[in-house]
Design a protein that fits this description.
alpha/beta, 6 helices, disordered N terminus, binds guanosine-5'-diphosphate
Length: 265
């Protein structure tokens, strides 16, 4: 039976499963399971210290950005159901790199996930911070195959000045159709009132963007976030929306030399 068969004519198809009182999703829908399966295929492709070192791919790319300690690595690991995928990004020498992962079945990669370095970490020297703001802004403005950005934010701190700078950089591309999702991480640390308030504030600050609560600890919002991102790339029947499937991408090791010594994030 088609998942939309029981829907009333003028209602959008129901894509996301209801959450229980603790924010956990009881049962994932068929679409959510498919999206989660897709995320699970993530595998390391390459790492680059500079935007111009990134390989050019004719595949839709989705970037994960956020302040250091916002929960970005944990979120990527939970979404991909792999314990160490994003923590590999934290190994010395790679902390200030853009790390790329392929998504889709082996031999049929259909998207790329880009893990951008966390920003705002106090112990990073000022010169590195400035260099990284430039690399990040350059990436967000000019990466041709970038189709969506996921901004991770710890709602107890809210969107900070650095997040605002990033929103300003992104705004023109969002207006041109770039997809944008804010995930409020560590939602398990909020009570219901705090969660509602955090959602409203983040919606306002992101100019009405899509905002969701996310808890890696309780697996809250995992299925829904997977589905939202899957929908950015695929049509409802699973075909790729944006560009043709390209032959398998080959993983490469750290092929790019760092221009400057990386400092720990
Ligand atoms: P990153 O610097 O943005 O990659 O952040 P990490 O993923 O390393 O997370 C920073 C800290 O937040 C770690 O101590 C994580 O264990 C913790 N954390 C991440 N996600 C959650 C969550 O959903 N709930 C709670 N309670 N802690 C979390």
């Amino acid at each position: 039976m088609s998942p939309t068969q029981n829907q009333k004519p003028n209602q959008p198809p129901k894509r996301h499963s209801p959450e229980d009182s603790k924010g956990r999703t009881a049962l994932e829908s068929k679409e959510e399971k498919e999206a989660m399966g897709w995320f699970h295929t993530a595998r390391f492709l390459t790492t680059a210290a500079q935007m111009h070192h990134l390989p050019a791919y004719d595949l839709p790319e989705i970037a994960f950005v956020g302040r250091s300690n916002a929960g970005k690595s944990t979120c990527i690991n939970v979404l991909t159901q792999q314990k160490k995928l994003a923590y590999a990004s934290k190994t010395p020498g790679r902390t200030q790199h853009i790390n790329l992962f392929a998504l889709g079945r082996q031999g049929q990669s259909d998207a790329v996930l880009a893990d951008l370095p966390g920003y705002g970490y106090a112990a990073v020297p000022k010169s590195d911070k400035i260099r990284w703001q430039q690399v990040m802004a350059n990436y967000l403005i000019s990466r041709p195959n970038l189709i969506g950005v996921v901004l991770l934010c710890d709602p107890r701190h809210g969107l900070t000045e650095l997040d605002d700078i990033l929103l300003d950089v992104l705004r023109p591309r969002v207006e041109e159709g770039l997809k944008f999702l804010v995930l409020l991480t560590k939602a398990d640390k909020l009570n219901k009132t705090e969660a509602t308030k955090a959602l409203s504030i983040a919606k306002l600050q992101s100019s009405g963007g899509v905002v969701r609560l996310f808890s890696a600890l309780k697996k809250q919002g995992v299925a829904e976030a997977s589905q939202i991102i899957w929908d950015w790339v695929h049509t409802p029947d699973g075909a790729i929306k944006v560009s043709p499937v390209q032959p398998e991408l080959e993983a490469s090791q750290d092929i790019f030399e760092d221009d400057e010594p990386a400092s720990e994030d």
